[in-house]
Design a protein that fits this description.
The chain is of the alpha/beta class. It has one domain: NAD(P)-binding Rossmann-like Domain (Rossmann fold, 3-Layer(aba) Sandwich). Strands 3-2-1-4-5-6-7 form a seven-stranded parallel beta sheet, with helices on both faces. The chain is globular and about 50 Å long. This is 3-oxoacyl-ACP reductase FabG. It is an enzyme of class 1 (oxidoreductase). Pfam families: adh_short_C2. Keywords: Oxidoreductase.
Length: 246
């Protein structure tokens, strides 16, 4: 039997990259999905590619706006009748050294990652605690574990997602709702492949498995945390890094 048969999942940042890979994996395992993304056109194209309205819906969503997250969650309930999995994946980068980073760049990254993940977690939890079941998967980053040069904003935000996830896991455990986090390392994407070769080579040298990860490899871990395979896990942080910074 499919791991997510008869389940409905909401995935933020679902139009591309890791978010889309998670959506694809979930659909393969029987789930219906709702993709939230700032780029509605891209989200609609992704939903169509996943199988159209019977399987996937697209919603324009700014996760820093609680009302828009409400709409995202309500779309899942209206379209598919439940909300069983919430994946808070949407994120941005505004990299700069602390000396050059603007206050706006700091605020933008903190707002999207911390407030956005908080909005997604609390809005999903409000539904899940009533049905006494559900899995929330928050996407952090290896940058939240070790800190990266030029990412005081991003590293702080991704570390914050870990703390948020653990606190939420404690609040929701007795309601039958699990909250876990994933910390991906260097994952092959349009963004990472655009980095200078010198930066790519430096990161590769830190990875014992000697390769970058693929979005699908993060998606498989998200599937594990979303499904009953991880039924006795909450408040955990799983690294998908090829062994980098063990």
């Amino acid at each position: 039997m499919a791991l997510l048969a008869d389940k409905t999942a909401v995935i933020t940042g679902g139009a591309q990259g890791i978010g889309l890979a998670i959506a694809e994996r979930f659909v393969q395992e029987g789930a219906k999905v709702v993709l939230g993304d700032l780029n509605l056109e891209a989200a609609e194209a992704a939903a169509k590619g996943l199988g159209g309205p019977a399987v996937a819906r697209a919603v324009r969503c700014d996760i820093t706006n609680a009302g828009e997250v409400d709409t995202l969650v309500q779309t899942a309930l209206d379209a598919f009748g439940s909300l069983d999995v919430m994946v808070n994946n949407a994120g941005i980068t505004r990299d700069a050294t602390m000396r050059k980073m603007t206050e706006e760049q700091f605020d933008q990254v903190i707002d999207v990652h911390i407030k956005g993940t908080w909005n997604g977690t609390r809005k999903a939890a409000a539904v899940m605690r009533e049905q006494k079941s559900g899995a929330i998967v928050n996407i952090s980053s290896l940058s939240g574990k070790v800190g990266m040069v030029g990412q005081t904003n991003y590293s702080a935000a991704k570390a914050g997602i870990v703390g948020l996830s653990k606190a939420a896991a404690k609040e929701l455990a007795h309601h039958g709702v699990r909250v876990n986090a994933i910390q991906p390392g260097l994952i092959r994407s349009a963004m990472t492949e655009a980095m200078p070769q010198k930066a790519w080579d430096q990161k590769m040298a830190e990875i014992p498995m000697q390769r970058a990860g693929e979005p699908g490899e993060v998606a498989s871990v998200a599937l594990f945390l979303a499904s009953e395979l991880s039924s006795y896990m909450t408040g955990t942080v799983l690294e998908v890094t090829g062994g980098r910074f063990m």
